[in-house]
Amino acid sequence: MAQVSKMFFWSGIILILIIGIIHVIDAPDSFHDAAYKGWLFYGNGAAALVSAVGIFRRHAWGWYWGLMIAVGAFMGYVASRTVGLPFIPAEPEAWLEPLGITSLIAEVLFVAVFLAGVPSRKKTGL
Would you put residue 87 in left (φ > 0), alpha (ψ -120 to 50) or beta? Predict the structure, then answer.
């Protein structure tokens, strides 16, 4: 993989770790909604750690894995507040939860860092 600038490199690692940490912090409360939601939150934390390690070791898959984590978490947040999740009704009143907003910001920023800082596969020969 072509060299990603240090700013994008460290931003990506920090942002994906923030996303994972927020989900791990919120996981115990998520079990009250449905057990699968709590496990998904713990899974998000573990997957974010794997992504951060991949990015740190300069593997392209770490960035792409992080992109899937960030986009998936963003979509889950929106779905949980609009149409609901399986066995969990929509929670439109939960849009402004501080941890949720912080996670959304980190997810959007990770995608922006990915788009701005990760060279395309075509250019790098990945």
Answer: left
Rounded-to-integer distance, Cα 44 and Cα 74, Å? 12
* CA gap 115, 120 in Å, rounded: 9
Two structure tokens written together for 12: 């990506």
Residue spans of the chain under pLDDT 70? 1-3, 119-126
Measure the CA–CA gap between 63 and 99, rounded to whole angstroms.
23
Could you give the CA distance from residue 25 to residue 16 in angstroms, rounded to a whole number?
14
pLDDT of the residue at 118:
78
Give the residue among 125, 21, 115 at the shortest CA–CA distance from 73: 21
Report the pLDDT value the prediction gives residue 124, as an integer from 0 to 100: 43
Pairwise CA distance, residues 46 & 33, whole Å: 20
